[in-house]
């Protein structure tokens, strides 16, 4: 019998040694039918809670809902159609929101970075629990802001689908199934790491 834990792993061609929780994390569009419990979600949110934050302002906010709930349907309704086509597989949907202002009303240029740290912490905690996290930019940001009654100083930055690894690729729209099975790719370090001045790199993207 195959091992579901290894069946869902993608090949990650790393150039240097990294932790398995990072190496094996990826963002599927298919999820197992296994429900995500409130206790599991609280662990994910707790991991995010302890992320680094500029001045400890913690500008992040998370809206969440489980499949079958009103909150889930409301989140689904602010996703773009492309993401709705596969996000319906996820047992949990979330929105990542941040306050654009500091407590004294100035622009907080680090707020999006801090929400990203929250999400990264949450994703690694999720990976340790066999839970996959798929973050999405494709949503109607203004509609989401109004739908969930956030003040105008807030921005809905991302949507997040969450659920246990192990879903059926056939549940994903046909044009995305190949991507579910493909090898992961990343830029090489020398394209974005500089021990000194920035140097523009030649375009090495594949045609």
UniProtKB/TrEMBL annotation:
SUPFAM superfamilies: FMN-dependent nitroreductase-like (SSF55469). One of its GO terms (molecular function) is oxidoreductase activity. It comes from the Bacteria. Residues 22-66 form the Nitroreductase domain. InterPro entries: Nitroreductase, Nitroreductase-like. Gene3D superfamilies: NADH Oxidase. Keywords: Oxidoreductase. Belongs to the nitroreductase family. This is Nitroreductase. It comes from Nonlabens agnitus.
């Amino acid at each position: 019998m195959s091992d579901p834990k290894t069946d869902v792993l993608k090949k990650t061609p790393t150039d240097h040694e990294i932790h398995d929780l990072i190496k094996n994390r990826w963002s599927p569009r298919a999820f197992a039918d296994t429900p995500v419990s409130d206790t599991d979600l609280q662990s994910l949110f707790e991991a995010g809670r302890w992320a680094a934050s500029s001045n400890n302002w913690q500008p992040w906010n998370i809206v969440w809902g489980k499949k079958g709930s009103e909150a889930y349907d409301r989140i689904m309704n602010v996703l773009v159609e492309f993401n709705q086509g596969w996000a319906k597989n996820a047992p949990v949907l979330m929105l990542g929101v941040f306050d654009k202002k500091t407590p004294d009303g100035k622009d907080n240029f680090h707020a999006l970075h801090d929400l990203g740290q929250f999400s990264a912490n949450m994703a690694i905690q999720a990976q340790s629990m066999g839970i996959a996290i798929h973050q999405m930019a494709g949503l109607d940001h203004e509609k989401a802001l109004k739908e969930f009654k956030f003040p105008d100083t807030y921005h809905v930055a991302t949507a997040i689908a969450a659920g246990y690894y192990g879903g059926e690729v056939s549940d994903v729209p046909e044009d995305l199934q190949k991507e579910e099975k493909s090898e992961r790719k990343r830029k090489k370090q020398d394209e974005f790491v500089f021990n000194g001045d920035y140097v523009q790199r030649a375009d090495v993207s594949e045609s």
